[in-house]
Amino acid sequence: MSEAMPDLISDEVADLVARADWITVFSGAGISAESGIATFRDAQTGLWENFDPSQLATPAAFESDPALVWGWYQWRAHLVRQAEPNAGHHALAELAAVPVAQRGDATSSLDVDVPRDSTRGGADRAVMIVTQNVDDLHERAGTPVLAHLHGSLFEPRCSRCAQPYHAADDGTLADLADLATAPDLAAANDLLRIPPPACAACSAPVRPGIVWFGEPLPPRAWLRAESALRAAEVVIVVGTSGMVYPAAELPERAVAAGIPVIEVNPEPSLLTPLVDHHLAARAATALPALVAAIRGR
Ligand code: BV8
Ligand code: ZN
């Protein structure tokens, strides 16, 4: 249940969002935290507490211990399958359907002359989601994702020929369910390691469809994200520490371009000093409050 925070959304923030025809959302692990998915830098819980995510999320880790890395991603995919989108994800889906508020002037801030008689009121707005997250909770809440900058837990591919791997929910998921009840780490260690399947086309090991540290971001996702941040009238940054590049460069560019940036994060992040408005609250509180505040404006 999200706590009520009556002064959280100022009139200025509400008007900015209510009038925006094109909103781009830049999300990080924090938006999935209230769905029970640990953020990337939260202490790993349970059986993975002895592993440092940034050490596992590398090509070298997969090279040296493919079964451990594959097991880790299978475990994370298993947890995401068991999770549900939270009120923050759902609020972003609702945001797109809230009619755009009328504006005093007849021109759009999109540098295009809007015919005098157009008020833009009542039109659905564009809400573009650019996410660093590898889960599918935005999609399952009903918002298409324009760009998964760091890949997806659900798009494994061959490590050699890149052929997509479509796993029937094979037995490994059953093993993973045992993990939750494994008596201790030693016993679980065998369960943690799941040898990756072999590619049907070239029999090389299948790898997670994830962008690891030291790997380039998918060019198409990057280009789409750049365009979405450039076209935005308002950018909403949700649940990111702003630590990882080049992704974190995108909200920085929006700030440099003079696009209003609103951050939702209960803690300060590396982006907080740059943004126009910091809503110091959790996503499942702030985003529904924001949608409620713009209705009827
Ligand atoms: C690359 C997949 C080069 C893995 C991830 C400058 C330029 C370019 C690169 C670099 C650079 N400086 C350093 C680098 C290298 C590196 C990097 O950025 N390192 C960091 C640690 C300094 N970058 C790379 O390696 C990138 N690749 O540069 O390649 C290249 C180019 C051409 C050719 C060859 C090579 C690749 C980076 C992608 C790495 N993969 N993810 C996986 O998930 O297993 S990144 C990883 O961190 C996560 O997946 C996540 O996407 C990302 C960012 O983390 P956040 O989402 O922000 O999560 P975090 O836990 O940090 O923070 C959560 C936030 O939520 C907190 O602020 C918290 O307060 C808040 N929060 C908590 N609860 C809530 C909440 N907010 C709202 N509501 C709540 N309830
Ligand atoms: Zn292959």
Structure write-up:
The protein is α/β, with parallel strands linked by helices. The chain has eleven helices and eight strands. It has helices spanning about 10-20, 55, 60-65, 65-80, 85-95, 135-140, 170-180, 185-190, 220-230, 250-255, 285-295; strands at about 20-25, 125-130, 145-150, 155-160, 205, 235-240, 260-265, 275-280. Helix 4 (about 65-80) packs across helix 7 (about 170-180), helix 5 (about 85-95) runs parallel beside helix 11 and helix 9 runs parallel beside helix 10. The two termini are about 25 Å apart. Zinc ion binds near residues 161, 199, 202 and 204.
Question: What's the SSE blueprint?
Answer:
Layout: H1 11-19, E1 22-27, H2 53-56, H3 59-64, H4 66-82, H5 87-95, E2 126-131, H6 137-140, E3 147-148, E4 157-158, H7 171-179, H8 185-192, E5 206-207, H9 219-231, E6 234-238, H10 249-256, E7 261-264, E8 277-279, H11 283-294
Helix pairs in contact: 1-11, 4-7, 5-11, 9-10
Bound molecules: ligand BV8 and zinc ion.
